[in-house]
Write a structure and sequence with these properties.
Structural class: mainly alpha
Radius of gyration: 23 Å
Strand order of the largest sheet: 1-2
Number of domains: 2
Largest sheet: 2 strands, parallel
Helix content: 55-70%
Shape: globular
Number of strands: 4
Number of helices: 17
Distance between the termini: 49 Å
Bound molecules: zinc ion
């Protein structure tokens, strides 16, 4: 059995509290043990499967799938409980709450338990598999191979991420129980209700609605006031990791989540379309923050590689889209090789190289050379990025 043994890499002093450091140590030695029994080729597939599992569970998407499935298979489609019948009569607000949110606590407990277990389990696995086991071969897989998120910020993103996860799971559990108890929604279960044309059309339509609105919202959060008061928190992490995905200001987190689930309340959307699209968004959210050079597959020509959002964290006000680069191309906020982008250059258009000082060019040069060629589509793309700045510099780099 071929296996990769972890190399001994000196670790900086840990900012983690003793209980967290102890648990982490035990978990990593458990992984060391299991991994030594697996063939080496299994690694990447296991990693992808685990990211998918994390996408399914981090915000209780699996519970939503289960509830929709129950409603789809229940006789009469959409009447799992008799709550609707009970709600039909005249009742007080308290009674209405009891009817619509009956069973909330149990669902909330399950959603939270699974959400946290997977967040730490899979997030920890990715950390162990790439950031520890393959730390010395970072040039093969890391978007910013020479730069690492300092351990105190790792701990910071886990704390912020856990708070958002608590809010996210509470809202998801409320939504799940609302749907289960026949609360109002425009989700439908039989394709024949609206026909095949609408069913097929609704996929790209809802995808564009969610992705374009989140692009606009994200861009709005990059304007000076909203950036400084809310979104800057997520940009604490210049080298994002899988734990960064939910490390967002709670206000912004709820705002974005509301946009993502909104189609369920105002347009007919088949339950499979809704759940698959949500899973797609969560899956890519994790992949795009992982810091690992994951590439888009041949069947998703609209999807940017991981580097696109990694660049967003490295250069701040640029590449605002998530699952399609089209919006940035259309609005001119896609990263250009003849512009520099920094935390103090707002609005997504960067600063022209001609207007940059020698010092700014030299700083930009060191940022660009620190990016991994393996995260680009081709070596030529990366070279062009570096050479465009180099040509502008009076003194060639390194002198
Ligand atoms: Zn941002
Ligand atoms: Zn991000």
């Amino acid at each position: 059995m071929a296996s990769v043994r972890p190399k001994t890499v000196p670790e900086p002093e840990s900012p983690y509290p003793t209980f967290a450091a102890g648990t982490m140590k035990k978990y990593y030695s458990f992984l060391d043990n299991v991994w030594s029994k697996l063939p080496a080729w299994a690694g990447p597939s296991v990693a992808s499967a685990l990211v998918l599992l994390m996408g399914l569970t981090i915000r209780a998407e699996w519970l939503m799938i289960l509830v929709h499935f129950l409603k789809w298979t229940s006789p009469g489609n959409g009447t799992v409980t008799s709550a609707a019948a009970a709600a039909a009569g005249s009742i007080t607000f308290d009674e209405w709450l009891n009817v619509r949110f009956a069973g909330f606590t149990n669902v909330w407990l399950i959603a939270s338990f699974v959400g946290y277990a997977i967040y730490f389990g899979v997030g920890g696995f990715l950390h162990w598999y790439y950031y520890r086991l393959r730390r010395e071969s970072a040039h093969e897989w890391k978007c910013q191979p020479d730069k690492w998120l300092p351990p105190d910020l790792e701990w910071h993103e886990i704390k912020i991420g856990s708070i958002s996860l608590f809010i996210g799971n509470t809202l998801s559990a409320a939504l799940v129980i609302w749907i289960l108890n026949d609360g109002y929604s425009t989700v439908y279960y039989n394709i024949s209700d609206y026909g095949w044309t609408w069913f097929l059309l609704s996929w790209p339509l809802i995808f564009c609605y969610q992705d374009y609105l989140t692009y606009l919202t994200h861009r709005l959060y990059h304007t000076p006031f909203l950036y400084k008061h809310f979104h800057k928190l997520h940009h604490t992490y210049k080298q994002p990791t899988a734990f960064s995905v939910t490390a967002i200001h709670p206000f912004e987190f709820v705002h974005v989540q509301a946009i993502l689930v909104s189609p369920m309340f105002f347009m007919p959307v088949h339950w499979v379309t809704m759940t698959v699209l949500m899973l797609y968004i969560y899956y890519h959210g994790i992949v795009d923050h992982s810091g690992i050079n994951f590439k888009a597959h041949w069947w998703q020509p609209w999807q940017p590689d991981c580097l696109f959002h990694d660049n967003h964290h490295q250069y701040f006000h640029v590449n605002f889209g998530f699952n399609a680069f089209a919006w940035d191309k259309i609005h001119g906020t896609y990263r250009r090789k003849d512009r520099i982008y920094r935390e103090d250059i707002y609005y997504g258009k960067g600063k022209e190289l001609e207007k940059c000082t020698e010092e700014e060019l030299s700083e930009e040069m060191s940022e660009r050379t620190s990016e991994n060629v393996a995260a680009y589509q081709s070596e030529a793309d990366k070279q062009e990025m570096v050479q465009t700045v180099q040509k502008r510099m009076k003194k060639p780099a390194g002198q």
